[in-house]
């Protein structure tokens, strides 16, 4: 304990201790010289003899210091100082390396944070591995939803799941109309079964969930609603007084009973690209059953049950139910882990992206390797002097690697800044219909990844030049001027290999990206059968005050008439569904 | 590698003990310690400077000696070492251990078991 304290005190004043030791040893040499003079030597000879007798002072000092600080640690400090000094001296080189490494590491960290959010991090629910997506097999590989009565029967009869829950899958973006106080607004609401939130393990941020009786009413007339956190914050500026207030939704009053937590983003997980504003009860009644295959279903496995066993059970159960109820729609349950359902489709694309970034990283390393090699060539004399002074090959290698790792770590700092900007930009891109995109951010794992990438990059790009550097004999290096080194055959070979591999990697990337862009262009070139440019759409709806059909027709005719008369509009038409939207075909 | 290390250890152990012993007489600086050991051994033992300074640092780290600045005989600033109470205790333990060890070795070498 005391020893540690003494050690600590030494570390704090190590600079001072350093010079004290030197002074102490210098005194020793002087005293020795003094004695030699007394024995009859000239002063000059005496000093030289004393120095010879004392031996390598630097080495002794290093040995003495090693008592206090582990040798590798002090060596590391020395290397770091030296590397930083070298970087300052070679500012142009440093700027280039930091820029290149920063771009590469920034790109990989950004892609890694996407991969992390979508593939590696578990879904933001309780025990997400126990959640199973249950669909109904449609024609071919199509995944359809389930009929309400099938859901009720499956829920009652199955033995694999502790519960099944679902939501009405045919809600439309902007289907709900908010009027009353404030600016009227179109909202997206999802009708959900009473138990959905508890099944997912989501607790309300304020208020409560739906009760059983609230989920028994008429489908079109929800008595209550739960707000999403984003909507609550945006429209009501997070006012807790919203609980118990009534909103006018589709011309009828709806009581706000709860607010969901910020961590729950239904749209991000189940409906990428959509923002869900509120949730209303989805009654599992004959009325909703008549609507057909409308229910998306999620189940939570009982402890011990697996997706495999549940699949087997549901195959039999589905067949039984279909035979018993010929009046219902067909039922062929398709089970998959929820995680797979959510991110399964984007997995190959993300893996391709990750590989592309890996190749970019390799190009970066090859590039940096080449730069470092050139720099080593200009420093061969220095290296030769070090070798002559007794630096071992291992020590030189370590110092060179420290230098390259310091460089790549500086690059990683720049890369982190880029990654922060990149993830922010990505998280706010709603045009991409990628699940969980809004949760892409730089977190602890991404930081760890960046550090690892930095160290690896440093080692990879520094290793070749470092191994190559002392290969030339000391004498040759000291004799020749630096041009001799660059012309060295081994180096020429190494550098051309690096360049060739760089070009090879770049070709791979270029061809891949070219193919991708080509297919993208062809998607854009598909003949839609209509010309979408210069066309705009707006959603209208006769209000509740237009009661009879002729009244509504008159309203719509009037709207069309006025729109056609507006300036800059050549024509206007009406449809109950837009092309390529909804499945009414 | 292994043999080299063990030999160093043996030397270290004795050198530490010798340095501590010289300091029982009073405070001394590095050069004086080396001189005293050489004189007391009738020039048989010559302390190498390369191992003296690491040894002094080691002893200080262990808290057996303490370095303070003072003036040398030639009026130069020098670092004088004194023995601490812990150092005195350690020296005693080491002396006993050494006595036992050399006694045993001497008995074997002198064929004491005749």
Summarize the model shown.
By secondary structure, chain A is α+β, with helices and mostly antiparallel strands.
Kindly describe this structure.
The complex is a heterodimer of chains A (585) and B (114). Chain A has 585 residues and is α+β, with helices and mostly antiparallel strands. Chain A has 4 domains: 2-68, no CATH class; 91-120 and 346-525; 128-343, no CATH class; 540-585, no CATH class. Chain A is built from 21 helices and 13 strands. Chain A has helices at 2-12, 14-38, 43-54, 57-66, 71-89, 91-120, 148-157, 196-200, 229-236, 266-270, 286-289, 307-324, 338-343, 347-378, 380-388, 393-427, 444-468, 474-479, 483-486, 489-525, 549-565; strands spanning 131-137, 143-144, 161-168, 176-179, 185-187, 189-192, 206-207, 224-227, 246-249, 252-259, 278-281, 295-301, 333-337. In chain A, the strands form 2 sheets. In chain A, strands 4, 5, 6, 7, 8, 9, 10 and 11 form an 8-stranded mixed β-sheet that branches. In chain A, strands 1, 2, 3, 12 and 13 form a 5-stranded antiparallel β-sheet that branches. In chain A, helix 6 packs antiparallel against helix 14 (347-378). Chain B is an alpha+beta fold. Helix content of chain B is 62%, strand content 14%. Chain B has helices spanning 2-23, 30-40, 49-61, 85-109; strands spanning 28-29, 65-71, 77-83. A 3-stranded antiparallel β-sheet of chain B has the order 1-3-2. In chain B, helix 1 packs across helix 2 and helix 1 crosses helix 3 (49-61). The longest helix of chain B is centred in the C-terminal third of the chain and has 25 residues, at 85-109. Chain B is globular and about 55 Å long. Classes of the chains: A alpha+beta (585), B alpha+beta (114). The A-B interface holds A 2-3, 6-7, 10, 20-21, 23-25, 27-28, 30-32, 34, 53-56, 59-61, 63-68 and B 29-31, 34, 48-50, 53-54, 56-58, 60-63, 72, 74, 76-79.
